[in-house]
Amino acid sequence: MLVHSRKGKWATWVLFFVFFLPLFALPLLVILAASFSEHWSGAFPSGFTAEHYASATRGESLQALTTSLVTAVGASLLALTVGSWAALAAASLRKGGGGAPRLSKLWGRLLDALFMLPVAVPSVVVGLAVLVAFSKPPMILNGTRWIVILAHAILVTAFAYQSVSAAIVRLDPAYEQAAASLGARPSYVLWKVKLPLLLPSLTAAAGLCFALSMGELSATMMLYPPDWMPLPVRIYAATDRGSTFTGAAVAVVLMAATLLVLFAVSRLRTRASYR
After folding, report:
1. Nearest-CA neighbor of 155 among 132, 190, 186, 130?
2. pLDDT number for residue 137
3. Phi, psi (rounded to 5 degrees) for 46
């Protein structure tokens, strides 16, 4: 900790528990308690049952979980590919790779603004834009699973772009210069030098994109077809019908699945960092 005095440490811990428990831990604990409850008429739940998890891990809920996982993985891979390529292109433009230095910096800033635009507006606006854009020729995706994956990718690409851009700034140019001085082609430098150095940041960006996609609801509500219902929509539908406890169990399953994938990604990131 940055606080060295005993009183400062105690004050820090008190503030942590005062703000962390009510704002973050308590809502999650309430959802967890509700997922095992039969009734909740007073201050505390009454009754204990695991029946909600039986319905949350089979049938339509299990299918919705699979849909969310496939959507999140597809959107994350697409966002990571596009965001990384754009971050590398923007870094090259800032170094003057696009002609005049002022013009190159301008193009780099425009690229930053373009990729940050989806997170600067409400996600429901992005969903509407995707719905309008892909409901008519030449490319009709409305009513298919691909429009959901595309919308999720658009929403999370900005985070992949920002993560990779920040990592590129921290890269030591000596590695690229040494490889180029030995006669390595730019493509070889990219694949054998730069991308391996960026691997920890790439895995972190992939985990962030996955987590954001797993919890996306607003744009999904406008786009999902009946045969491609992600888990957040399933949770919303369950609570809207009054099945709050079942919805809480499905929400716990969603959190658990997301945390498991993030844990696996963090292990890959740790190995990439040691490499």
Report:
1. 130
2. 85
3. -130, 145
Q: Is the pLDDT of residue 132 over 80?
A: yes
63 sits in which H/E element = helix 59-94
Where do the H-state alpha helices sit in 134-243? Answer: 145-170, 173-181, 186-189, 195-214, 218-223, 231-240
Contact 171, 100 (CB under 8 A): no
Structure pTM?
Answer: 0.84
Is pLDDT at 152 greater than 90 in this prediction? yes
Angstrom distance (rounded) from CA 260 to CA 235 = 19
End-to-end CA distance of the chain: 28
CATH second-level architecture of 69-228?
A: Orthogonal Bundle (1.10)
273: how many CB neighbours lie within 10 A of its CB? 12
Pick the closest to residue 210 from 108, 71, 87, 96 (CA basis): 71
The crossing angle, in degrees rounded to 10, of helices 244-274 and 195-214 is: 180
Which pLDDT score, from 0 to 100, does residue 83 have? Answer: 92
Task: Report the alpha-carbon distance of residue 207 to residue 256 in Å, rounded.
Answer: 14
> What three-state secondary structure class fits 45?
coil
Residue 161 scores a pLDDT above 80:
yes
Given a contact cutoff of 8 angstroms between Cβ atoms, the answer to whether 83 and 155 are in contact is no
pLDDT tens track for 185-240? 878 888 888 888 888 889 989 999 999 999 999 999 999 998 999 999 999 998 88
CB 37 within 8 A of CB 49: yes
Q: Tokens 């730019």: give the residue.
A: 186
- The pLDDT of residue 104 is 63
